[in-house]
Write a structure and sequence with these properties.
Elements: H1 4-21, H2 26-35, E1 37-38, E2 41-42, H3 51-61, E3 75-78, H4 98-101, H5 103-108, H6 116-122, H7 139-152, E4 164-167, H8 177-185, H9 187-196, H10 206-216, H11 223-228, H12 249-255, H13 260-270, H14 280-288, H15 295-322, H16 328-345, H17 354-359, H18 361-365
Antiparallel strand pairs: 1-2, 3-4
Helix pairs in contact: 1-3, 1-8, 9-14, 10-15, 15-16
Protein backbone atom coordinates (compact mmCIF):
# COMPACT_ATOMS: atom_id res chain seq x y z
CA UNK A 1 0.00 0.00 0.00
CA UNK A 2 1.19 3.46 -0.83
CA UNK A 3 1.82 6.03 1.86
CA UNK A 4 -0.55 8.71 0.58
CA UNK A 5 1.21 11.60 2.31
CA UNK A 6 4.59 10.78 0.76
CA UNK A 7 2.96 10.06 -2.60
CA UNK A 8 1.30 13.48 -2.52
CA UNK A 9 4.66 15.12 -1.82
CA UNK A 10 6.16 13.23 -4.77
CA UNK A 11 3.38 14.57 -7.01
CA UNK A 12 3.95 18.12 -5.75
CA UNK A 13 7.66 17.65 -6.38
CA UNK A 14 6.85 17.04 -10.05
CA UNK A 15 5.42 20.58 -10.22
CA UNK A 16 8.54 21.96 -8.54
CA UNK A 17 10.65 20.18 -11.16
CA UNK A 18 8.55 21.56 -14.02
CA UNK A 19 8.97 25.08 -12.65
CA UNK A 20 12.71 24.61 -13.13
CA UNK A 21 12.84 22.94 -16.54
CA UNK A 22 9.75 24.30 -18.34
CA UNK A 23 9.71 28.03 -17.71
CA UNK A 24 8.69 28.76 -21.28
CA UNK A 25 5.34 27.01 -20.92
CA UNK A 26 1.99 28.81 -20.87
CA UNK A 27 1.18 27.42 -17.42
CA UNK A 28 4.33 29.05 -16.01
CA UNK A 29 3.35 32.44 -17.45
CA UNK A 30 -0.04 32.05 -15.75
CA UNK A 31 1.69 31.46 -12.40
CA UNK A 32 3.91 34.52 -12.96
CA UNK A 33 0.81 36.62 -13.65
CA UNK A 34 -0.91 35.26 -10.53
CA UNK A 35 1.90 35.34 -7.99
CA UNK A 36 4.66 37.47 -9.52
CA UNK A 37 8.33 36.78 -10.15
CA UNK A 38 11.43 38.17 -8.44
CA UNK A 39 15.06 37.44 -9.33
CA UNK A 40 13.99 34.60 -11.60
CA UNK A 41 11.85 32.89 -8.93
CA UNK A 42 8.09 32.84 -8.44
CA UNK A 43 6.91 34.72 -5.38
CA UNK A 44 5.30 32.80 -2.53
CA UNK A 45 2.54 35.42 -2.26
CA UNK A 46 0.49 36.70 0.65
CA UNK A 47 -2.20 35.19 2.84
CA UNK A 48 -4.63 34.74 -0.03
CA UNK A 49 -2.57 32.13 -1.89
CA UNK A 50 -3.77 28.55 -2.12
CA UNK A 51 -2.58 25.75 0.16
CA UNK A 52 -1.25 23.96 -2.95
CA UNK A 53 1.01 26.89 -3.75
CA UNK A 54 2.30 27.16 -0.18
CA UNK A 55 3.20 23.46 -0.17
CA UNK A 56 5.10 23.85 -3.45
CA UNK A 57 7.10 26.74 -1.97
CA UNK A 58 7.98 24.66 1.12
CA UNK A 59 9.17 21.74 -0.99
CA UNK A 60 11.23 23.97 -3.30
CA UNK A 61 12.88 25.76 -0.37
CA UNK A 62 13.36 22.61 1.73
CA UNK A 63 11.42 23.83 4.76
CA UNK A 64 8.37 22.68 6.69
CA UNK A 65 6.86 19.22 6.95
CA UNK A 66 6.91 18.70 3.20
CA UNK A 67 10.39 20.13 2.90
CA UNK A 68 13.33 18.77 4.80
CA UNK A 69 15.54 19.22 1.77
CA UNK A 70 14.49 16.02 -0.02
CA UNK A 71 13.85 17.98 -3.24
CA UNK A 72 16.18 20.99 -3.05
CA UNK A 73 19.16 18.83 -2.00
CA UNK A 74 18.80 16.70 -5.12
CA UNK A 75 18.57 19.33 -7.87
CA UNK A 76 21.66 20.83 -9.43
CA UNK A 77 22.19 23.40 -12.18
CA UNK A 78 24.70 22.19 -14.76
CA UNK A 79 26.09 25.45 -16.12
CA UNK A 80 27.36 25.90 -19.66
CA UNK A 81 27.08 29.47 -20.94
CA UNK A 82 25.85 30.81 -17.59
CA UNK A 83 22.81 32.59 -19.02
CA UNK A 84 19.54 32.31 -17.10
CA UNK A 85 21.46 30.89 -14.13
CA UNK A 86 21.48 33.21 -11.13
CA UNK A 87 24.95 33.45 -9.65
CA UNK A 88 23.87 33.88 -6.02
CA UNK A 89 20.59 31.99 -5.61
CA UNK A 90 20.74 29.02 -8.00
CA UNK A 91 22.64 25.92 -6.88
CA UNK A 92 25.23 25.61 -9.64
CA UNK A 93 28.65 25.28 -7.97
CA UNK A 94 29.44 23.30 -4.85
CA UNK A 95 26.78 21.70 -2.68
CA UNK A 96 24.53 24.66 -1.90
CA UNK A 97 23.76 28.00 -3.51
CA UNK A 98 26.42 30.70 -3.28
CA UNK A 99 24.07 32.91 -1.25
CA UNK A 100 23.63 30.16 1.35
CA UNK A 101 27.32 29.37 1.58
CA UNK A 102 28.32 33.06 1.70
CA UNK A 103 25.22 34.65 3.19
CA UNK A 104 27.18 37.62 4.53
CA UNK A 105 28.53 38.47 1.09
CA UNK A 106 25.06 38.09 -0.42
CA UNK A 107 23.74 40.66 2.05
CA UNK A 108 26.47 43.11 1.00
CA UNK A 109 26.56 42.63 -2.77
CA UNK A 110 24.98 45.07 -5.23
CA UNK A 111 24.67 42.31 -7.85
CA UNK A 112 22.06 40.07 -6.23
CA UNK A 113 20.23 39.44 -9.52
CA UNK A 114 23.29 38.86 -11.72
CA UNK A 115 23.59 35.67 -13.74
CA UNK A 116 26.69 33.50 -13.89
CA UNK A 117 27.39 34.87 -17.38
CA UNK A 118 27.12 38.47 -16.11
CA UNK A 119 29.54 37.87 -13.23
CA UNK A 120 31.98 35.99 -15.45
CA UNK A 121 32.02 38.72 -18.11
CA UNK A 122 32.53 41.45 -15.49
CA UNK A 123 35.40 39.44 -14.00
CA UNK A 124 35.06 37.40 -10.81
CA UNK A 125 38.81 37.15 -10.25
CA UNK A 126 40.41 39.04 -7.34
CA UNK A 127 39.66 42.73 -7.83
CA UNK A 128 37.23 42.06 -10.69
CA UNK A 129 34.30 44.32 -11.49
CA UNK A 130 31.82 41.59 -10.54
CA UNK A 131 32.47 42.22 -6.84
CA UNK A 132 30.54 45.38 -6.02
CA UNK A 133 29.65 46.00 -2.40
CA UNK A 134 27.43 48.51 -0.66
CA UNK A 135 30.26 49.34 1.74
CA UNK A 136 33.92 48.54 2.29
CA UNK A 137 34.48 44.99 3.54
CA UNK A 138 36.03 44.07 6.87
CA UNK A 139 39.07 41.79 6.96
CA UNK A 140 37.07 38.67 7.83
CA UNK A 141 34.65 39.45 5.01
CA UNK A 142 37.59 39.76 2.60
CA UNK A 143 38.61 36.26 3.69
CA UNK A 144 35.16 35.02 2.68
CA UNK A 145 35.63 36.61 -0.76
CA UNK A 146 38.95 34.78 -1.08
CA UNK A 147 37.22 31.49 -0.21
CA UNK A 148 34.63 32.25 -2.88
CA UNK A 149 37.45 32.88 -5.39
CA UNK A 150 38.90 29.46 -4.57
CA UNK A 151 35.52 27.89 -5.25
CA UNK A 152 35.35 29.54 -8.69
CA UNK A 153 38.97 29.00 -9.73
CA UNK A 154 38.41 25.80 -11.68
CA UNK A 155 35.12 26.82 -13.29
CA UNK A 156 35.05 27.82 -16.96
CA UNK A 157 31.99 29.26 -18.73
CA UNK A 158 31.35 27.40 -22.00
CA UNK A 159 29.59 29.82 -24.33
CA UNK A 160 28.43 27.12 -26.76
CA UNK A 161 26.86 24.85 -24.12
CA UNK A 162 23.36 25.46 -22.74
CA UNK A 163 22.51 25.28 -19.04
CA UNK A 164 20.33 22.48 -17.73
CA UNK A 165 18.83 21.30 -14.47
CA UNK A 166 19.75 17.85 -13.20
CA UNK A 167 17.92 15.54 -10.81
CA UNK A 168 20.89 13.98 -9.01
CA UNK A 169 19.29 10.59 -8.21
CA UNK A 170 18.65 10.10 -11.96
CA UNK A 171 20.75 12.48 -14.06
CA UNK A 172 19.79 10.95 -17.41
CA UNK A 173 16.08 10.31 -16.78
CA UNK A 174 15.30 13.35 -14.63
CA UNK A 175 12.61 13.61 -11.96
CA UNK A 176 9.95 10.93 -11.74
CA UNK A 177 7.13 10.55 -9.22
CA UNK A 178 8.11 6.90 -8.68
CA UNK A 179 11.73 7.79 -7.90
CA UNK A 180 10.77 10.62 -5.57
CA UNK A 181 8.32 8.37 -3.71
CA UNK A 182 11.06 5.79 -3.19
CA UNK A 183 13.33 8.50 -1.76
CA UNK A 184 10.63 9.75 0.60
CA UNK A 185 9.85 6.27 1.91
CA UNK A 186 13.41 4.93 2.13
CA UNK A 187 15.07 4.23 5.48
CA UNK A 188 18.00 6.49 4.55
CA UNK A 189 15.64 9.43 4.26
CA UNK A 190 14.17 8.65 7.69
CA UNK A 191 17.65 8.56 9.25
CA UNK A 192 18.49 11.84 7.54
CA UNK A 193 15.37 13.42 9.04
CA UNK A 194 16.48 12.23 12.50
CA UNK A 195 19.93 13.77 12.15
CA UNK A 196 18.69 16.94 10.43
CA UNK A 197 17.32 18.33 13.69
CA UNK A 198 20.55 17.53 15.58
CA UNK A 199 22.77 19.85 13.52
CA UNK A 200 21.12 22.94 15.02
CA UNK A 201 22.56 23.56 18.48
CA UNK A 202 22.15 26.85 20.34
CA UNK A 203 25.76 26.77 21.59
CA UNK A 204 27.30 26.05 18.18
CA UNK A 205 28.04 28.79 15.60
CA UNK A 206 25.68 28.80 12.64
CA UNK A 207 28.48 28.25 10.12
CA UNK A 208 29.38 24.97 11.85
CA UNK A 209 25.78 23.75 11.80
CA UNK A 210 25.51 24.59 8.09
CA UNK A 211 28.70 22.62 7.42
CA UNK A 212 27.26 19.61 9.29
CA UNK A 213 23.96 19.94 7.40
CA UNK A 214 25.86 19.73 4.11
CA UNK A 215 28.03 16.87 5.38
CA UNK A 216 25.06 14.69 6.35
CA UNK A 217 23.65 15.12 2.84
CA UNK A 218 27.04 14.37 1.26
CA UNK A 219 27.13 17.85 -0.28
CA UNK A 220 30.61 18.92 0.78
CA UNK A 221 33.14 19.37 -2.07
CA UNK A 222 35.18 16.29 -1.24
CA UNK A 223 37.31 15.01 -4.10
CA UNK A 224 34.90 12.14 -4.81
CA UNK A 225 31.99 14.57 -5.08
CA UNK A 226 33.98 16.89 -7.33
CA UNK A 227 34.78 13.91 -9.55
CA UNK A 228 31.07 13.11 -9.89
CA UNK A 229 30.50 16.68 -11.07
CA UNK A 230 33.31 16.42 -13.65
CA UNK A 231 35.41 19.06 -11.85
CA UNK A 232 38.29 16.72 -10.96
CA UNK A 233 39.84 13.72 -12.71
CA UNK A 234 40.47 10.23 -11.30
CA UNK A 235 44.18 10.88 -10.78
CA UNK A 236 43.52 13.73 -8.32
CA UNK A 237 40.93 12.25 -5.93
CA UNK A 238 43.25 10.62 -3.40
CA UNK A 239 42.77 11.60 0.24
CA UNK A 240 44.71 14.68 1.37
CA UNK A 241 46.39 12.82 4.25
CA UNK A 242 48.33 10.62 1.83
CA UNK A 243 46.85 7.26 2.83
CA UNK A 244 46.24 6.21 -0.77
CA UNK A 245 42.44 5.91 -0.56
CA UNK A 246 39.85 7.95 -2.43
CA UNK A 247 38.61 11.00 -0.56
CA UNK A 248 34.99 10.07 0.07
CA UNK A 249 32.97 11.67 2.85
CA UNK A 250 32.94 8.63 5.15
CA UNK A 251 36.65 7.95 4.59
CA UNK A 252 37.75 11.53 5.23
CA UNK A 253 35.72 12.10 8.39
CA UNK A 254 35.62 8.62 9.92
CA UNK A 255 38.24 6.22 8.61
CA UNK A 256 41.29 8.06 7.30
CA UNK A 257 44.60 7.34 9.04
CA UNK A 258 44.88 10.90 10.31
CA UNK A 259 41.36 12.13 11.06
CA UNK A 260 39.67 8.83 11.91
CA UNK A 261 41.67 8.46 15.12
CA UNK A 262 40.46 11.86 16.36
CA UNK A 263 37.13 10.32 17.41
CA UNK A 264 38.83 7.81 19.70
CA UNK A 265 40.97 10.55 21.23
CA UNK A 266 37.78 12.47 22.07
CA UNK A 267 36.19 9.36 23.59
CA UNK A 268 39.27 8.76 25.72
CA UNK A 269 39.16 12.36 26.92
CA UNK A 270 35.47 12.07 27.86
CA UNK A 271 35.77 8.52 29.21
CA UNK A 272 33.40 7.03 26.63
CA UNK A 273 33.79 3.75 24.73
CA UNK A 274 32.53 3.01 21.23
CA UNK A 275 33.34 2.23 17.61
CA UNK A 276 32.82 4.23 14.44
CA UNK A 277 30.09 3.09 12.01
CA UNK A 278 30.75 3.45 8.31
CA UNK A 279 27.74 5.74 7.66
CA UNK A 280 27.98 9.42 8.65
CA UNK A 281 24.34 9.70 9.81
CA UNK A 282 24.61 6.53 11.92
CA UNK A 283 27.84 7.87 13.41
CA UNK A 284 26.21 11.16 14.40
CA UNK A 285 23.28 9.44 16.14
CA UNK A 286 25.47 6.86 17.89
CA UNK A 287 28.04 9.42 19.05
CA UNK A 288 25.33 11.78 20.35
CA UNK A 289 23.87 9.01 22.54
CA UNK A 290 27.15 7.36 23.55
CA UNK A 291 27.25 9.10 26.95
CA UNK A 292 23.62 8.39 27.80
CA UNK A 293 20.19 9.63 26.78
CA UNK A 294 19.72 12.51 29.23
CA UNK A 295 19.30 15.95 27.68
CA UNK A 296 22.55 17.39 29.08
CA UNK A 297 24.66 14.40 28.05
CA UNK A 298 23.23 14.28 24.51
CA UNK A 299 23.67 18.03 24.13
CA UNK A 300 27.34 17.81 25.11
CA UNK A 301 28.08 14.93 22.71
CA UNK A 302 26.12 16.64 19.96
CA UNK A 303 28.28 19.75 20.38
CA UNK A 304 31.45 17.66 20.35
CA UNK A 305 30.48 15.89 17.13
CA UNK A 306 29.69 19.17 15.36
CA UNK A 307 32.94 20.70 16.56
CA UNK A 308 34.97 17.67 15.48
CA UNK A 309 33.66 17.61 11.89
CA UNK A 310 34.32 21.35 11.63
CA UNK A 311 37.91 20.89 12.87
CA UNK A 312 38.46 18.03 10.38
CA UNK A 313 37.12 20.04 7.44
CA UNK A 314 39.15 23.19 8.23
CA UNK A 315 42.25 21.04 8.73
CA UNK A 316 41.66 19.33 5.36
CA UNK A 317 41.32 22.72 3.63
CA UNK A 318 44.50 23.99 5.30
CA UNK A 319 46.40 21.03 3.87
CA UNK A 320 45.06 21.64 0.35
CA UNK A 321 45.15 25.44 0.11
CA UNK A 322 47.86 26.44 2.58
CA UNK A 323 50.00 23.28 2.85
CA UNK A 324 49.74 23.46 6.65
CA UNK A 325 50.16 20.19 8.55
CA UNK A 326 48.79 19.81 12.09
CA UNK A 327 49.63 17.08 14.61
CA UNK A 328 46.88 15.15 16.42
CA UNK A 329 47.90 16.80 19.68
CA UNK A 330 47.18 20.21 18.15
CA UNK A 331 43.79 19.05 16.88
CA UNK A 332 42.83 17.88 20.38
CA UNK A 333 43.92 21.22 21.81
CA UNK A 334 41.60 22.93 19.34
CA UNK A 335 38.73 20.62 20.34
CA UNK A 336 39.23 21.40 24.03
CA UNK A 337 39.72 25.12 23.45
CA UNK A 338 36.70 25.71 21.21
CA UNK A 339 34.35 23.48 23.21
CA UNK A 340 35.23 25.37 26.39
CA UNK A 341 34.53 28.78 24.87
CA UNK A 342 31.36 27.70 23.05
CA UNK A 343 29.94 26.40 26.32
CA UNK A 344 31.17 29.36 28.36
CA UNK A 345 29.70 31.90 25.92
CA UNK A 346 26.20 30.59 26.61
CA UNK A 347 26.40 30.11 30.36
CA UNK A 348 25.99 32.98 32.80
CA UNK A 349 27.56 30.91 35.61
CA UNK A 350 30.82 29.33 34.50
CA UNK A 351 33.23 29.78 37.38
CA UNK A 352 35.98 27.24 36.72
CA UNK A 353 39.13 27.83 34.72
CA UNK A 354 39.81 26.09 31.43
CA UNK A 355 42.43 23.81 33.03
CA UNK A 356 39.70 21.92 34.90
CA UNK A 357 37.72 21.54 31.70
CA UNK A 358 40.76 20.06 29.96
CA UNK A 359 41.38 17.54 32.76
CA UNK A 360 37.82 16.44 33.70
CA UNK A 361 35.11 17.83 31.37
CA UNK A 362 32.22 15.72 32.66
CA UNK A 363 32.72 16.69 36.30
CA UNK A 364 33.17 20.27 35.15
CA UNK A 365 29.67 20.25 33.62
CA UNK A 366 28.14 18.17 36.39
CA UNK A 367 27.12 15.28 34.12
CA UNK A 368 29.53 12.61 35.40
Amino acid sequence: MRKLKDFNYALLGKWCWRMLVDRGGFWYRVLVARYGESDGRLEVGGRSVSKWWRELAKISDGVGEGGGGWFSDRVFRRVGNGRNTLFWTDRWVGDVSVCMRFSRLFDLTLNKSSTVADMYSLGWEVGGEAWRWRRRLWVWEEEMVEECHNLLNDFIVQTNVTNRWQWLPNITGGYTVRGAYQILTSNDNLVLDDTGALVWHKQVPLKVSILAWRLLRDRLPTKNNLLRRDILHNATILCVVGCGNDESTSHLFLHSDSFGSLWQHIRNWLGVSGVDPYNICDHFIQFTNSLGTSTNRCSLMQLMWLLCVWIIWTKRNNIIFNNIQTLMLELMKKIKHYSFWWLKANKTIFVFASEKWWSDPLQYLGVD
